[in-house]
Write a structure and sequence with these properties.
This protein is α/β, with parallel strands linked by helices and 609 residues long. 36% of the residues lie in helices and 19% in strands. Residues 1-22, 98-157, 576-580 and 598-609 have low confidence and may be disordered. It binds S-adenosylmethionine and zinc ion.
């Protein structure tokens, strides 16, 4: 193939936050084709040695938006602490408080680990030996908290400015480096990204691509901190095993702000290393594409070995897949005195993508068992009961409240469903707490609304994020179509069903995980009564009903009569959003994509894992 001159990729709109990226004119070497995604351009060998799945653009767009939002939020919180300290120092000085005591108090107020506190104090008196080791904002904060001589207080405070923290990102399984390149170009305040892959073909591709995007030097091969005066570039390539690399970042001073796991299939083998290599309040981003294991009843043994829980074989299997991955993250972090806070957990097309915050706090670790449950799931009507693994009992002793951690009495009194008489099967244990932080999701949504032109998949992002931000905490969801199928009746519309639930005094939301689904805190018995009330006006031919479970459901008397009058609250459950929320088929034979060496077997380039 002859060299070809190619137009440049679109540049980002210049805003105060987004740096404009300029790229020199480009000629494509023989044997390569150019792939452009947002600000990044990469060369793909015609032989397809390194893995790229263009369908994952949505995953990468979402990740850029989430990491930006998390980084902005983290800096906003640090700024608030910094300002409060500055103010208290001003007030303290005005009241003539002692210099030494003030400085000591301020340093102790930080929630930085002990080793870092020592480092902070040292960094204020001497240049750090290695500039990469000391967090910029912390240095600025330290400069602010150390008291100058009393007569110089006011001028120094006025000249102080908050310097936001720069972040380090570790992409453990990078393939072509496309994701790392986008992070380096599109996320302000990135100090550097470590792009790692085991495959020499992948790291060779990364080197080419990093250089092509002006993020070199292309010879950089180390993921560690640079020596003074040494420039390792903004994307640093490492060739090696992902776990080895992450374990090498386990010591507190070497931890990174963000770890991204985007493997073939399951992320399970990488999670133990990942939860240990992240700074406190850092962000862990995880993809799993093994939905045949996570979201079907076909491989319970595999799901248990990878995630420590059993999946559900139901229409809500995509939400239970998310909860199984969260369970793995939670229990893995707990082993090291750390806990997770899910920020956003999405089931998308053929994979799940989760963003969780990781923090060290033994008291929160104790609560993990109360956010974990097994579910008893009916194989016929899919009704379920939740059985938490633990509970907290408060004991008051004078002014003191002690928390006791207890097991729970077993919930089901029989092995058959109270609704239809079907067989109950156990699923889990899995995460039973919230799967998103609505405040965070709304912040990401706001960011995407303000920067739509920066994201090729912004329409779908807005739709997914809108639904996720409104989702009820409660597990799981259902579709009126599925429930109606158990009754063999005509299906009530979403609006009819939602109105009846709201009129019954229960809450309702959509679920991002399934088109046409609803989430509610209404008991299953109420949903079934709703369907029985519906059937009064939409009769069922009983002589056609063959299966016992359906006969039982239909023959039960109505406990609570449902009211289908249109409820004004419907407006609030994003019924009117006509944005792209669910799966859009972007190319023929799409899916998780195949490993490079199996490409020949899957000519379409998209194969089930
Ligand atoms: C799905 S691809 C990554 C795609 C990439 N994150 C993106 O957004 O384009 C998975 C990559 O993981 C690499 N890999 C598999 N096992 C690994 C391991 N143990 N350590 C490091 N890399 C590994 C493979 O070589 C492959 O390039
Ligand atoms: Zn049942």
């Amino acid at each position: 193939m002859a060299d070809t001159t190619t137009p440049m990729p679109p540049t980002l709109t210049a805003t105060s936050e987004t740096p404009v990226q300029t790229t020199p004119p480009l000629s494509i070497p023989p044997g390569f084709k150019l792939h452009v995604e947002n600000t990044a351009q990469i060369l793909l060998p015609d032989t397809a040695d390194a893995f790229l799945n263009p369908v994952q653009e949505f995953n990468r767009d979402l990740s850029v938006a989430c990491i930006r939002t998390w980084s902005d939020d983290m800096n906003a919180k640090r700024k608030a602490v910094w300002e409060a300290k500055l103010l208290s120092r001003k007030e303290g000085t005005a009241k003539g408080k002692g210099k030494t005591k003030r400085a000591a108090e301020d340093v102790d107020e930080t929630d930085e680990p002990e080793s870092k506190k020592v480092k902070i104090i040292e960094s204020s008196t001497s240049e750090p030996a290695n500039s990469m080791d000391v967090d910029d904002a912390t240095v600025a904060t330290t400069a602010a908290v150390l008291d100058p001589p009393p007569e110089k207080v006011e001028p120094i405070i006025k000249s102080e400015e908050f310097r936001p923290s720069k972040i380090t990102i570790l992409e453990a399984l990078s393939a072509t480096g496309l994701r790392s390149i986008r992070y380096a170009k599109e996320i302000p305040l990135v100090k550097y990204v470590i792009a790692n892959d085991l495959s020499p073909a992948a790291t060779a591709a990364m080197r080419r691509n990093v250089e092509l995007n002006g993020l070199g030097p292309s010879t950089a091969t180390t993921s560690g901190p640079s020596q003074p005066g040494e420039d390792l570039g903004k994307v640093r390539i490492n060739e090696g095993d992902a776990c080895d690399l992450m374990y090498s970042h386990r010591p507190e001073r070497l931890r990174v702000d963000v770890v991204d796991l985007d493997p073939y299939g399951t992320a399970a083998p990488f999670i133990d290393a990942a939860v240990q290599s992240i700074k406190d309040d850092g962000l862990l981003c995880v993809t799993c594409t093994d939905m045949t294991v996570l979201a079907s009843g076909n491989y319970p043994e595999k799901c248990f070995s990878n995630y420590g829980g059993i999946p559900t074989k139901t229409e809500y299997c995509h939400e239970s897949a998310l909860r199984l991955v969260l369970h793995t993250l939670s229990t893995s972090a707990a082993r090291y005195g750390r806990f997770i806070t899910p920020l956003l957990s999405l089931s998308i097309d053929f994979y799940v993508r989760l963003f969780v915050k990781v923090r060290t706090a033994p008291i929160e670790v104790k609560k993990a068992m109360t956010k974990t449950a097994v579910y008893h799931v009916c194989q016929s009507c899919q009704a379920f009961t939740e059985e938490p693994l633990g509970r907290i009992v408060e004991r008051t002793n004078g002014d003191k409240v002690n928390l006791l951690y207890k097991t729970t009495p077993s919930a089901p009194s029989s092995d058959t469903c109270v609704e239809c008489g079907g067989k109950l099967h156990v699923a889990g244990p899995m995460w039973s707490g919230p799967i998103h932080d609505p405040t965070f999701v709304k912040q990401v949504l706001e960011h995407v609304n303000e920067n739509s032109s920066n994201y090729g998949t912004h329409a779908r992002m807005k739709g997914m994020l809108t639904v996720a931000s409104e989702e009820l905490d409660t597990p799981f969801y259902f579709t009126p179509a599925k429930v109606a199928s158990h009754f063999h009746c005509e299906c009530p519309s979403l609006d009819d069903t939602a109105s009846a639930i709201l009129n019954g005094g229960y809450k309702i939301s959509r679920s991002h995980a399934c088109a046409g689904s609803l989430k509610s805190d209404a008991p299953q018995a109420f949903i079934h009564d709703l369907m029985r009330t519906w059937i009064l006006d939409h009769p069922v031919r009983m002589d056609k009903i063959k299966d016992e479970a359906s006969k039982t459901l239909l023959n039960k008397p109505i406990g609570t009569t449902a009211d289908f009058t249109r409820h004004p609250g419907l407006e609030a459950i994003s019924n009117k959003i006509k944005l792209v929320r669910y799966q859009v088929n972007p190319q023929p034979n799409w899916g998780p994509g195949a490993r490079p060496d199996s490409k020949k077997k899957n000519k379409g380039g998209a194969a089930a894992e």
